[in-house]
Amino acid sequence: MAPKNRLFLGSFVHSKALDELEYLHNAVVCVDTSGTIVAVERECDEARAKEILFPRLGWDMDDVEVVTAQKGQFFFPGFIDTHLHAPQYPNVGIFGNSTLLDWLNTYTFPIEASLSDPARARQVYTRVIRKTLSHGTTCAAYYATIDVPSTNLLADLCLAAGQRALVGRVCMDQFSPDYYRDSSPESALAATCESIAHIRRADPSMSLVRPIITPRFAPSCSVPLMRQLGQLAAETQLPIQTHISENGAEIATVKKLFPPSATSAQDDSYAAVYDAMGLLTERTILAHAVHLTEAEAELVAARNAKVSHCPCSNTALTSGAARMRWLLDKGIVCGLGTDMSGGYSPSILAAARHAVLVSRHRAMGRPGAEGEREKLSVEEVLFLATRGGAQVVGLEGKVGGFEVGMEWDAQLVGLGMVDEEGNAEEDGGDVDVFGWQGWEDMIPKWVYNGDDRNTKKVWVKGRLVHERK
Ligand code: GUN
Ligand code: FE
């Protein structure tokens, strides 16, 4: 069925600034057949929209789909997961007491290698896309594996399901097991180019799915491989994703493997290595950034590279508590990542909650104003989950909010209204709203107690991609 023009009615909530949510009530948002927002009006209803807006938009009165947020429901921008590993999805929750380097060898490389089986890859990737969409993730920056056909399949499946995505074929030619590594920098580069070409053919306008250059992390990439990937990024202007400064043993490995004599970097810091390889750019997504030094953070800021904060993973693998306030104060653009399966949760709403909690752990033991400053607010983590994420993945101004010219990547959130007798009027999961508690209370209730039961409908570029039954 051809898409219709759509009129969304009700309450809309989105981020206006890092620490400010905007509430639009009794509002309408008009979305055209291409999925673009063409009008936003406050204090408006269907009749008034038809009278005032439709003539201006040239819309046919009788050929419009109307979607109304009911009482206890609101529209919110779709979430952006700026860092996750699709092939690791079967492993969520399985990490025992491991830390990064033994976790990679024990759990992660075996599961990724197993996805070169196309049937298995199809099963896992279908599931991870469905699962993240059901949690309101309208855009995801995915790492796939070193296997090209299954990486390409992931991109195809995202396109078919309608999830916006960046899909990266993972590069790793050293410091990795024999059964799961690139045999040379040249073969890694060729495989990367093959996957890029496929994704470009699959979505020529790159309106939904884009390729992303993916050196796994410095330890698993040789200097020649990193240099060639940096060059490729410069030539193609494609985005880059990698990991940085997640764990102490990892950082020590970088220092050992990449002395300045080997890289011509200014020093042996993790960020300087990437910079010397041409991998620290404004289109680079750096996952974790837990233990950056002052000089490294300055370098990241100077290059305008972006950071994906992964609080669930950083806690699960006991990597550390990233200094989010410090990064934000430096003007570094940040978003949130689930980092499945380093993180166990598929939900960016949960990542937002975890970001709040981790910031409070940072506040503990830092009395007074310094501790208070560490705390991230509900408003701030929702910004990171939407607008911040959009900046991280290069989609600023295109998604992450409700503004004319942006695309309709959105979720309809429903909270559980409870009547006088205490009976739930709809399935609000763990969110019970007694009477009416006002919007300033509803949103934190959703952040702290919400889950996919509250995600009633999800759209990407105007297309309905998930509906909770
Ligand atoms: N560093 C290198 N590879 C990985 C990975 O798959 N997950 C995480 N969390 N860190 C990594
Ligand atoms: Fe990761």
Provide an overview of this structure.
Belongs to the metallo-dependent hydrolases superfamily. ATZ/TRZ family. It holds the Pfam family Amidohydro_1. It is an enzyme of class 3 (hydrolase). The protein is of the alpha/beta class and 469 residues long. It has two domains: 5-77 and 402-467, Urease, subunit C, domain 1 (Roll); 79-392, Metal-dependent hydrolases (TIM Barrel, Alpha-Beta Barrel), CATH 3.20.20.140. Helix content is 39%, strand content 22%. It has helices at residues 46-57, 100-114, 118-134, 148-161, 185-202, 223-236, 248-257, 260-263, 270-276, 294-303, 311-316, 324-329, 348-363, 369-374, 378-392, 439-449; strands at 5-17, 20-31, 37-41, 64-68, 73-77, 79-85, 137-143, 164-168, 170-171, 209-211, 214-215, 240-244, 284-288, 306-309, 334-336, 410-414, 416-418, 432-434, 455-460, 463-467. The strands form six sheets. A four-stranded mixed sheet has the order 3-2-1-4. A four-stranded antiparallel sheet has the order 5-16-19-20, with helices on one face. Helix 3 runs parallel beside helix 4 (148-161), helix 4 (148-161) runs parallel beside helix 5 (185-202) and helix 13 crosses helix 15. The mean pLDDT is 97. The structure holds guanine and fe (iii) ion (FE). The site of guanine has 11 residues, from helix 2.
Q: How many domains is the backbone divided into?
A: 2
Question: How many helices in DSSP terms?
Answer: 16
Tell me the helix content: 25-40%
Query: Major sheet: size, sense and barrel closure?
Result: 4 strands, mixed
| Beta-strand proportion | 15-25%
